[in-house]
Design goal:
Length: 192
Amino acid sequence: MEAIDLYNPIHRLSVERFHRLIEAGILDEGDRVELIDGEIRDMPPIGPPHGSTTDTLTMLFAPPLAGRAIIRVQGPLTLDDGTEVYPDFMVLRWRDDRYARANPTPEDVRLLIEVADSSLALDRGLKLGKYARAGIGRYWVADIPHRTLHDYRDPDRFGGRYRQLHSVSEGRISITIEEAEIPVQITELFPG
């Protein structure tokens, strides 16, 4: 449990109030921010390597999962009442409304991927803990500086960590989602 700072209290927002700020035009739809534990945080800009890796993931996952799952790129995910993040890439369970009525929640996520260039410490630290506590079963970090894919499995919801980590810098890794096996060649993720 977090200690409460009585001398420097922080006014935290709920996801509902965060959405009201957007609806009121205080935050623009295009602002690169997310809400983590009630705090609005700026997201780093997307550079060419980050964009390239995200595009590659889309090209790898979209064809075999068409009609089986939903691919979401840099879209919202509501983790709890005070946290709405915008992961770089998600594979979501199929819903006929394609999440038009409500943002996905952790139960909808089949795979969540953060593409880390300047955000590596955040993605392997604070966000990893949030995703584990939320019960995200499979979390990948595409680590651009080290040209490595970190595959986190088996979340410990109480401890806010993952019990298994497989890091792959060469060769390939395969994942099966909705009965489709998807091989990912590591060198394809990190071109150049």
